[in-house]
Amino acid sequence: MIHNVNLLTFDFVVRKADVNLHDGMGRHALHLAAEADSVAAVQFLVTDIGVNVNLQTVLACDTALHFAAKVHLRTRSLLTQL
């Protein structure tokens, strides 16, 4: 899960991580941040890194909002505003 925005910043800014990488379930960093209800990480990925808020998982075509809508009010609210 993505909880530490400082580590996320390091990976994406310093190490120039590929925002298109996904895990075995097709989830990208944005999906993991939304699933963890990490508002700061979602905000960073979308606003600072430029990740498409409508990025879909590889397998199920779910967006971060789909993940957040399941249980996470804070992240769901943010994603509907971006």
Explain the overall architecture.
The chain has 82 residues and is mainly alpha-helical. The protein has a single domain, classed as Serine Threonine Protein Phosphatase 5, Tetratricopeptide repeat, CATH 1.25.40.20. Helices cover 55% and strands 0% of the residues. The chain has 5 helices and no strands. The chain has helices at 5-14, 29-35, 39-49, 64-71, 73-81. Helix 2 (29-35) runs parallel beside helix 4 (64-71) and helix 4 packs antiparallel against helix 5. The radius of gyration is 11 Å and the shape is globular. It starts with a helix and ends with a helix. The mean pLDDT is 79.
Tell me, briefly, the overall form. Answer: globular
Distance between the termini: 21 Å
Helix count, DSSP H or I runs of 4 or more residues = 5
At the first level of CATH, what is the class?
Mainly Alpha
Oligomerization: single chain
Give the helix level as a range of percent.
40-55%
Hey, roughly how much beta strand do the residues contain?
under 5%
The biggest beta sheet is recorded as: none
Mean pLDDT: 79
List how many beta strands DSSP finds: 0
Structural class of the secondary structure composition? mainly alpha
